[in-house]
Specification:
It holds the Pfam family Pam16. This is Mitochondrial import inner membrane translocase subunit tim16. There is one protein chain. By secondary structure, the protein is mainly alpha-helical. The protein has 2 domains: 10-75; 77-149, Helix Hairpins, CATH 1.10.287. It is 77% helix and 0% strand. It contains 5 helices and no strands. The chain has helices spanning 7-61, 63-67, 79-85, 95-108, 117-153. The chain is elongated, with a radius of gyration of 33 Å. The chain starts with 6 loop residues before the first helix and ends with a helix. The model is unreliable at 64-72 (pLDDT under 50).
Length: 154
């Protein structure tokens, strides 16, 4: 009785070769996934901590309040961009000039007249930001005047 090569004998060596290869791949992939599972939360925590630190530093300088940047949200317009949108310089900023430039550009960009809603939105946001800036500037001026008066009376 001679043994003829059966179907198992032909396919067995190729299946056996996949077995050790599969084991090697599994031995590489499982620890890699474990490492990633440990490092991702640590990296995320570090990123949040950095965001908190920089947020605190920016709030101390008053910059974050103007920018309104958030971790996942879109950053607000900067003061420089607002000045460019309304075609003003920092020395020209006052309630009257901001209102005058806002009215001029907002009217000329009316959607009914073929203008752009996007540009109107930019103009409106620039006015909002510069109004806040003018209020802060006036408040700082009042504090300096009030602070100087108290120091002389002592």
């Amino acid at each position: 009785m001679s043994q003829s090569p059966g179907p198992f004998r032909r396919t067995m060596p190729s299946r056996m070769a996949i077995g050790p290869l599969g084991r090697i791949i599994a031995q590489i992939i499982v620890p890699a996934i474990a490492i990633i599972a440990r490092t991702l939360p640590a990296a995320y925590a570090a990123a949040l901590e950095n965001a908190r630190k920089s947020g605190t530093a920016n709030e101390a300088s008053g910059d974050a309040a103007r920018r309104g940047a958030s971790f996942l949200g879109k950053a607000r317009m900067s003061k420089d961009e607002a000045l460019m949108v309304l075609n003003l310089t920092e020395n020209d900023v006052s309630v009257e000039t901001v209102r005058r430039q806002y009215d001029r550009y907002f009217e000329s960009n009316k959607v009914e007249n073929g203008g752009s809603f996007y540009l109107q939105s930019k103009i409106y946001r620039a006015k909002e930001l510069l109004d806040e800036y003018v209020k802060e500037k006036e408040a700082e001026g009042k504090q300096r005047v009030d602070g100087g008066g108290r120091g002389e009376g002592r």
